[in-house]
């Protein structure tokens, strides 16, 4: 449970990764480059009081939970929001991804492809090959521990990323599985239905809002935005 000081901060940024929001309670299960307010596994714990939050935000997180954990997570969001509080969810728009694939729309995957085959590829390749160099270069801003680890599983996690994407189906695979990290697929219709069943009063399809959402242009194009009011 949050201590008194933290419990006065009523906006939660859950599964925040590197995207820390100032003035919010930023939660993730692993610390990356920025300091988190809470480290916890949101599939197992939800350390917030009933009716205590004004706003819950999560971007590209819910698909990382399996179906049952995701449902429990959404129910917990509902439980912890005050009446009138808002849950904003951003997640991959699998309808658009599959449509683009079936229509052979290479342009749809272009921006994501530029990142995966560009900055991401260069970074993971160099970490995979020379972890010590990366450790020295990024002394003040170290990468996550598993990037530098010699454990077989961690080396394989890196090796999966240190590759180039060539075929459209590989992008579909990346959206769907993200190196084994994605565990459940949603679309606007299914998520809106689940949120209504849980008891949210208003559920609205939203769109990218630069004042709150982080997604880069490639991610934005392939994301669903949904807001639900308790
Ligand atoms: C794709 S990243 C999204 C990060 C950020 N919200 C963004 O949009 O860039 C997914 C994040 O969810 C976190 N995550 C995955 N499963 C989690 C869990 N069970 N509990 C807490 N955080 C989790 C990961 O550590 C990762 O930072």
What is this structure's SSE topology?
Elements: H1 4-7, E1 11-14, E2 25-28, E3 38-39, E4 53-59, H2 67-80, E5 81-92, H3 94-102, H4 110-129, H5 131-137, H6 145-148, H7 152-161, H8 168-177, H9 188-198, E6 202-206, H10 217-221, E7 223-229
Parallel strand pairs: 1-2, 1-4, 2-3, 4-5
Antiparallel strand pairs: 5-7, 6-7
Bound molecules: S-adenosylmethionine.
CATH superfamily of the largest domain: Vaccinia Virus protein VP39
- How many extended strands? 7
> Could you state the order of secondary-structure elements as H and E?
HEEEEHEHHHHHHHEHE
- Global geometry: globular
> What is the rounded distance between the termini?
22 Å
Under CATH, the topology of the largest domain can be stated as Rossmann fold
Extract low-pLDDT stretches.
none
Q: How many domains would you count in the coordinates?
A: 2
Protein name: Methyltransferase type 11 domain-containing protein
GO molecular function: S-adenosylmethionine-dependent methyltransferase activity
Organism: Candidatus Falkowbacteria bacterium RIFCSPLOWO2_02_FULL_45_21
Pfam family, one: Methyltransf_11
Report on the architecture of this protein:
The chain has 230 residues and is an alpha/beta fold. The chain folds into 2 domains: 4-93 and 187-229, Vaccinia Virus protein VP39 (Rossmann fold, 3-Layer(aba) Sandwich), CATH 3.40.50.150; 99-177, no CATH class. The chain is built from 10 helices and 7 strands. A 7-stranded mixed β-sheet has the order 3-2-1-4-5-7-6. α2 links the parallel β4 (53-59) and β5. The mean pLDDT is 90. The structure holds S-adenosylmethionine (SAM). Residues 15-17, 19, 28-30, 41-43, 59-61, 64, 214 line the site of S-adenosylmethionine. One of its GO terms (molecular function) is S-adenosylmethionine-dependent methyltransferase activity. Residues 27-87 form the Methyltransferase type domain. It comes from Candidatus Falkowbacteria bacterium RIFCSPLOWO2_02_FULL_45_21. This is Methyltransferase type 11 domain-containing protein. Pfam families: Methyltransf_11 (PF08241).
């Amino acid at each position: 449970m949050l201590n008194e000081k933290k419990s006065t901060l009523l906006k939660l940024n859950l599964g925040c990764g590197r995207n820390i929001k100032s003035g919010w309670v930023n939660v993730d299960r692993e610390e990356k480059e920025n300091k988190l307010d809470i480290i916890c596994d949101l599939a197992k714990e939800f350390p917030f009081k009933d009716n205590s939050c004004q706003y819950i935000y999560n971007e590209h997180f819910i698909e990382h939970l399996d179906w049952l954990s995701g449902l429990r997570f959404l129910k917990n969001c509902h439980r912890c929001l005050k009446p009138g509080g808002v849950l904003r969810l951003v997640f991959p728009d699998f309808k658009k991804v599959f449509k683009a694939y079936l229509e052979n729309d290479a342009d749809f995957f272009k921006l994501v492809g530029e990142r995966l085959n560009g900055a991401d590829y260069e970074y993971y390749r160099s970490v995979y090959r020379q972890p010590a160099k990366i450790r020295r270069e990024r002394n003040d801003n170290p990468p996550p521990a598993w990037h530098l680890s010699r454990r077989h599983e961690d080396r394989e996690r890196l090796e999966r990323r240190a590759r180039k994407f060539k075929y459209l189906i590989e992008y579909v695979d990346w959206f769907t599985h993200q190196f084994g990290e994605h565990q459940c697929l949603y679309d606007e219709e299914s998520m809106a239905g689940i949120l209504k069943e849980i008891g949210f009063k208003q559920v609205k399809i939203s769109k990218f809002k630069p004042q709150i959402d982080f997604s880069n242009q490639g991610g934005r194009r392939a994301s669903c935005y949904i807001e639900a009011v308790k």
